[in-house]
């Protein structure tokens, strides 16, 4: 999966490792202005939703107006300081990026949203059986610290960002440990950390 992402050149995945921390961020090449930063956000303007989308938007606003005192409980949502809400209107990203922290407005029956937690998460990599360069089998485990840096990209471009990060950490650990002999694994932890960086 990592090879497919690098071959398509739509996304560049940068992994930063500081001693015992892995932070994964998804960025797009900034030198090509024709490429869109987020899939599906190329025409996220509500004005070009089409006739059906305009009718549904008008109907939704009409229902909000009729049930005004009660609709306020449904239309206003709150996200915490450490969260961001990615809003989809009729399946398309709403322009302006992720909303929050604080109060934001959604239209009932048209908008759906996904709350993304921006706090640092930890993940214990289960013990991996690795065959070292000098053909010795060792069991290696690790702890991964990561956080989401862009909520919109983590929702729109990756099906499950947290699971993908876990698999990337396991694969990176196995690949790096498989290229080292046993005495380097035991004695050169800082060099291994710099190699993974």
From TrEMBL:
One of its GO terms (cellular component) is cytoplasmic side of plasma membrane. Signal peptide: none annotated. It is found in: Membrane. The chain crosses the membrane at residues 59-79. InterPro entries: Band-7_stomatin-like, Band_7, Band_7/SPFH_dom_sf, Stomatin_HflK_fam. The keyword Transmembrane applies. Its main location: membrane. The keyword Membrane applies. This is Band 7 protein AAEL010189-like isoform X3. It comes from Diaphorina citri (Asian citrus psyllid). The lineage of its organism: Eukaryota, Metazoa, Ecdysozoa, Arthropoda, Hexapoda. The gene is LOC103510269.
